[in-house]
Task: inverse folding
């Protein structure tokens, strides 16, 4: 049950796009189309942003998109806004259990 | 609206026990898997356990297997986590979340802090 690998931090200016990667193995990310992404602001509970690799829950702006290639999933945020500054976590189904990434801090410059 | 409210956290000594609760409202609780996820101070998220809608299936992270027990009472719309043999490394905010087995957790409760310290 090893954690998925994410960059510790990414940054971008307002209006720009950023991509956060999430690397696993063929037993988790690569084995299932069940990757989700969560946004967490300081002191708050995580919020679902993407599920099943690329689906957005209602209410999540279409600036947020997800994709997957092989054992690596990605979250892209376009048209960065100040309120996007937060921690982002990927998560993957892995058969009998679920595994999270270590988290990525997004800074909006 | 869908709401999850955790309770039962607190300070406990190493080796001690604690039982967390999660009260659900705004949806048909008995239709959904439920999960516990924790976050140590300043650290990332760690999936702890899930339970199926009818309690037929449960599973645990290796880090808590044999020490923690997840359960639910569909008549009371409540989820529980019995934590025994607690260790310092179990110190974390514990969240309950409505789950779909495909790693979809939505929504999450506000969390309850468990501190294991002598």
Result:
């Amino acid at each position: 049950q090893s954690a998925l690998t994410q960059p510790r931090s990414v940054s971008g200016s307002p209006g720009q796009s950023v991509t956060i990667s999430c690397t696993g193995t063929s037993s988790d990310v690569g084995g299932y189309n069940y990757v989700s992404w969560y946004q967490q602001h300081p002191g708050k509970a995580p919020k679902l942003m993407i599920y099943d690799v690329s689906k957005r829950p209602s209410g999540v702006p279409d600036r947020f998109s997800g994709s997957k290639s092989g054992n690596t999933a990605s979250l892209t945020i376009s048209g960065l806004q100040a309120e996007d500054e937060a921690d982002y976590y990927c998560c993957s189904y892995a058969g009998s259990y679920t595994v999270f990434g270590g988290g990525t801090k997004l800074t909006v410059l | 609206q869908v709401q999850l409210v955790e309770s039962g956290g607190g300070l406990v000594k190493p080796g001690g026990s604690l039982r967390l609760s999660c009260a659900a409202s705004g949806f048909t609780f008995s239709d959904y898997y439920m999960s516990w996820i924790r976050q140590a101070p300043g650290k990332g998220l760690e999936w702890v356990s899930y339970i199926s809608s009818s309690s037929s299936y449960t599973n645990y992270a290796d880090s808590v297997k044999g020490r923690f027990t997840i359960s639910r009472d569909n008549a009371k719309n409540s989820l529980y986590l019995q934590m025994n043999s607690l260790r310092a490394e179990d110190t974390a905010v514990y969240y309950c979340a409505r789950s779909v087995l495909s790693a979809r957790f939505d929504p999450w409760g506000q969390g309850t802090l468990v501190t294991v310290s002598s």
